[in-house]
Amino acid sequence: MSPQDAGHETLSNLLHEERQFDPPTDLAASANVTRATYEQAAADFEGFWAEQAKRLSWGTEPTQTLDWSGAPFAKWYADGTLNAAYNALDRHVEAGNGDRVAFFFEGEPGDTREITYAQLTDEVRQAANALLELGVKTGDRVAIYLPMIPEAVVAMLACARIGAPHTVVFGGFSADALASRITDCGVEVVITADGGYRRGSPAALKPAVDEALKSCPDVRNVLVIRRTGQETAMTEGRDLWWHEYVGKQSTEHTPETFPAEHPLYIMYTSGSTGKPKGILHTTGGYLVGTAYTHWASFDLKPETDVFWTAADIGWVTGHSYLVYAPLVNGATSIMYEGTPDTPHKGRWWEIIEKYRVTILYCAPTAIRTFMKWGSDIPDGFDLSSLRVLGSVGEPINPEAYVWYRHFIGGDETPVIDTWWQTETGMHMIAPMPGVTAGKPGAAMTPVPGVAVEVVDMDGNPVGNGEGGYLVVTKPWPAMLRTIWGDDQRYVDTYWSRYDGMYFAGDGAKKDEDGDIWLLGRVDDVMNVSGHRMSTTEIESALVSHPKVAEAAVVGAADETTGQAIVAFVILRADAGDGGPDVVKELRDHVAKEISPIAKPRQIMVVEELPKTRSGKIMRRLLRDIAENRELGDVTTLTDSSVMNLIKENLAGQP
Ligand code: WT7
């Protein structure tokens, strides 16, 4: 897909968008980032990042900043040593801030917990001791499959503390998805819970682990947190209750320091092929990059702000801006377990009013949902504590931006649209709240210290007013180091398209002022409610069903979710017409194979699929159909009558 294609709808909107909002005067007057920050970063790139490393407490201070001699395999702060959990916890306690709240936890059913830095430190030490007793050694991988509960943070930091990289698998993923991740990175210990609360009722998690482990013989232990208290089968000799096993451990544990490049975690994300990529993040650079951007993009004042990332811990947003950066920065955060409409549609605003939240960070899809529910809902709450609003996960359309700023931000708060990826680990393009006059819909300019460009097919920078492909032109501290177990795929995916530049996979445009607008993916990756999904992965799930011969999946524009999954399937001859419930059967099958979030919005049963002469499915044409558009150019099709056939076929379907 060309970036012009990807941004088709967006672009025409953008051309009419001329509003611009200056930073609030008082915020600008005491802002963390000023124009001078941009100048410093531009004048001395490495010096700037050496300076940022002082945000951390090192065992051995690094004398090197960037080692790019093995490009594209980067080393940051390579001769430094540190412990991630010590940086997130102990040092704040040692500095006398042990009583500061790290998390205000709101469970979906209404239970709450206030967890101070001192308490969290103790819990993490106990969990670290438990993992050590289970034989987890430095470098061993641990899988975490949990709802949004404080123990998820404890589990992550306990792993980090002993140098065991964690891989958190989103609790909404299926047993199969969990099993493939466990196998890919060779996990031997899993941390899970009996269940979590979702839309007012307990939803079991542990059965999915039991199912997954049938195909993962190397997993020796499962630690099970009791959250819902529901009936849970425990396998003798393998499964242990967290409250018993972790609860009995000592709260003493001296953290060891590890080299800056020691692996911190692996996070799986969808690529343009069926197999998810294990994105590897390491310790020093990742913590510097996330702590710095958290402080910069949100103008964070840790002593007074109450920060809320409304994202699940199972995604990179949860890792970087709910766990690591806020804790390293000594901030106070909200953690909310459930959905925004349980038990009522004002739940988020109630939480903001209750805790006097000052910074909210969420996804445009949530904002569009709130718009649909109506502004009278947030109007019923006192949201005056808010001073900065963040957005992440997909382009924020101007309407949503303006609604967010007006109804949630009282027309005063800057809206900070942050462009980044699982791979980048940290914000890359974002307005700075005290400096940038924001434009609704634009991510604006690279964060100070980050170098991005929009280039054409040949890798030449485009001019103002032109569109192209987004690239990163200099390494950055929180960048992925590789794809777990597949260095070649790392090189091929990100560094082969253009010489010496990181290919992000997004289309972008520079406006007349040179500000950047993101236009969506240019590969076979969809973005549904800010979740990244591969068309191929869903196609594979569909063809694994005995009734399906062939499948093609496209992302179609959707008012609420940004994109929606639309599938075209050809049934096997022996499946007949598949029966009246075939669509439901296939949707449920995808949910089971991948996750309920991967369920296609629509499945269309067709006789044929449009293909190029080389046999490639022409998704662009299917997207036209899915979005009810006039068909684009069909001249490269093997048989252009296929499209008419599909259209005629579909005319008879709902
Ligand atoms: C893809 C990365 C970043 C954490 C959550 C998603 C899209 C992300 C924006 C934004 C436009 C955005 C891009 C990117 N994306 N943020 N502010 N404006 N697009 O992480 O799952 O790794 O997905 O999400 O297409 O490549 P992810």
TrEMBL record:
It comes from Microlunatus ginsengisoli. The keyword Acetylation applies. Residues 35-88 form the Acetyl-coenzyme A synthetase N-terminal domain. ATP binds at G393, E394, P395, D417, T418, W419, W420, Q421, T422, D506, R521, R532. It comes from the Bacteria. Acetylated. Deacetylation by the SIR2-homolog deacetylase activates the enzyme. The gene is acs. CoA binds at R198, R199, G200, S201, T317, S529. Its cofactor is Mg(2+). The lineage of its organism: Bacteria, Bacillati, Actinomycetota, Actinomycetes, Propionibacteriales. PANTHER family: ACETYL-COENZYME A SYNTHETASE, ACETYL-COENZYME A SYNTHETASE 1. It is an enzyme of class 6 (ligase). It catalyses: acetate + ATP + CoA = acetyl-CoA + AMP + diphosphate. Its EC number is 6.2.1.1. This is Acetyl-coenzyme A synthetase.
